[in-house]
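Input.
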Amino acid sequence: MAIWGSVKGILDNPEKTAAEMVVKMNPELETVSNNDDKGEMTIRTKDGKEMTLSYKDISEGRLEITDSEGNTTRIGNTDLSQVPAWVPRASDLTNGFSTYHSDSGRQISGQFSGKSSMSPEDLRSFFEAEASSLGMTSNYKSSSANGVSVLSLTFSGGGKSLTVVITGKPGEATLVNTAYSQSK
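Output.
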């Protein structure tokens, strides 16, 4: 049941799921609290600034944080051209609903999500082949409940890491969440 609870949470509130993933994958941010009744999250930046914003604001790109050193993190629908060229993307990825990109001078990191017409297994094969061509090692986990499948892939190597969570539900486009980081 714990797995189904996680999958159900992703499907019931993709904006919250994307917001949580953005914060978790960004070393400049930490979650202080969530308020699901209001659809809001309070976050703290590395230099101690706290702010409360809606899951929707994050998913629509309504947040930009500049730290005391001038490093900027954009959360929401930022320009995907900033995603490093080595990060693989499904060719038919559409409906991106949450993105962030951060360049701290020491590390580039980010996250983007979207939907694909490819099956979860075809997407798994695609990402594994792309990561293999980059010389990255991989780890794979999967779960399935009530027809919903979740594949979690992690890849690392050469100062780069990639995490891809693929969620498939029969009759719907496949949800693809991709997080990346690269040491400079």
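The helical segments are 2-12, 14-25, 55-59, 120-133.
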